[in-house]
Amino acid sequence: MHTGQKIKELRKLKLWTQAELADRAKVSERTVRRLESSGTAESATLLSVLDALETNLSELDNIVSEDESIKKASTEKHTDVKFLHRIQSGRDLVRIISHAHQYGYDYHDCHTEEQTEVVQVFLTTVADVLDIWDIVEIGQRFDLENNLSKEIKHLEELGLWVFGDRQINKKDNWITAIVEIYSKENPLIQKVKLDKDLMRKNK
User: Fold this and answer.
1) 23-48, pLDDT tens digit by residue?
2) How far, in Å, CA of 138 to CA of 192, rounded?
3) pTM score, two decimals?
């Protein structure tokens, strides 16, 4: 596991998106993506990212030896969710994100600039809908659902599927909405009875 992968694991434990980490580290989101995928970056950039994560290279190296502890912490953060359900309409998505206190997202398998741009627009739209859902009229909610359905359809045309789940912390009823995007060809997608598509989360 190289430095970038360790940074990604730590970011996920904090339930931060790549955009959030980039903002805290005062670097571009593209820089974070490149760092996580390749493990390389200029020294000043790496230090900024580590500082944002409140860690250093020495502590980061311990992630490998403390792998089991990290998995346990991640499980606690994400409750007992083992699968993400495929989302095929705006209404399905709204059932997951409405009234959520926190929104966590990620995207994978984007191999073209068009895919990346469409995904980023979609995830931003989801965040906007979450922010305004409680204050809009019923008619406007239908419009928002229809717009989300159109964007989901566009993603599917690009070979990308949307998955998500709603996690509730039983201690304080804190709701976290999780939305992730994968290629429809991703081998982790599992077919189950009734033709429901699920994305298995790494333990």
Assistant:
1) 999 999 889 988 888 888 888 899 99
2) 34
3) 0.57
Reading the block at residue 144, the tokens are 């928002």
Question: Three-state SS for 194?
Answer: helix
- Using CA atoms, how far apart are residues 78 and 169, in angstroms rounded to an integer? 9
What is the rounded CA–CA span in Å between residue 64 and residue 101?
31
Residue pLDDT, tens place only, 95-154 = 999 988 888 888 888 889 999 999 989 998 998 898 899 888 989 999 999 999 999 999
Write down the pLDDT at residue 198: 56
Strands, sheet with 83-87, edge to edge from the N-terminal-most edge strand: 102-107, 174-183, 160-169, 83-87, 196-200, 189-192
Bridge partners for 183 per DSSP: 160
Quick one: which H or E segment has residue 55? none
d(CA 62, CA 58): 7
User: Residue 101: which of 28, 29, 159, 15 has the closest Cα?
Assistant: 15
pLDDT at 65 over 60: no
Q: Three-state DSSP class for 2?
A: coil
Residues found in the chain: 203
**Host H or E run for residue 179:** strand 174-183
Residue 96 corresponds to which amino acid?
I
**203, pLDDT greater than 50:** no
Distance CA 19, CA 197 (A): 28
Q: What is the Cα 58 distance to its own chain's centre?
A: 27
Residue 112 DSSP symbol:
S
